[in-house]
Design a protein that fits this description.
mainly alpha, about 0% strand, globular
Length: about 280
Amino acid sequence: MRGAVPRLSLTLLAAESGARLCAIIHYLVRGQLGWFGLTIACLVPGYAAQLLSILWFRADGHTPGCWLLVLHLLQLGLWKRAGRASRLGGSCRYWDVLRAAAKTGGGAGEVLAQLGDVCVLRLLEALLQTLPHLLLQAYVVVAVDPAGFIPGVSAGLSLLSLAWALVSYSHFTFLLKPGHLSPPAAVILCLLLWRTGMLGTRVLALVLFARLYSFWVFAVAGVHWLLMSFWLGAQQTDIVAQPCRWRLFNCLLGAVYIFCYINVRPGPSRARVAVFYAVST
């Protein structure tokens, strides 16, 4: 799949951003300042990914200029800079990924480094920004304005973009394994359908529960979060070495596990996936 993954990622990112902007304008024009403010607030967590991109620049010995800082402030850093310059010998852009993939067929180490950095930053941004926006717009469509076309389109594109962020990350981890080539398009499509269905049903279930029982949804989500966090701690993952950061990592990933499963340990994951679904269903 020569450049197909970054090309589709870029397309979905642009579509999602455009739909989010339309939703913001929609609420502002209709005078729904509450939903307008909440939609704007969903943008704030996305600055974590922008900050990480800036920190990668500084860690590599590059001082970000004013123009680059402005791009990150506008949350366009993923378009401009998505990786560590020490790996690539310079800035990494979505466009660089596409050009390198076209030249090498997507299998060279440089392309993998670029693709990996883009996937990590995009997954972080999707979980922190796209997921809250999806929950908010889905609630508006289900409980407030069932005929709302723009919130519905924004929710649909956010769901697809989030699912694709998970798929592209899985695609990258698959390429890292020795002897593994890029999976065929049918496999990527099946992964996308699986992620979309899993995320869509969980979001819909939470939204419907929130509509019927209001704030009790936070109690249900909180119990699930605690169970997943303790379970992750019991697995003794070694991604983060320091104890304090290790606990924080488990807590954050436990919140993500309310919606989807992300494999954080090497080796077969069938047993862990079975436990995840047994607890979540």
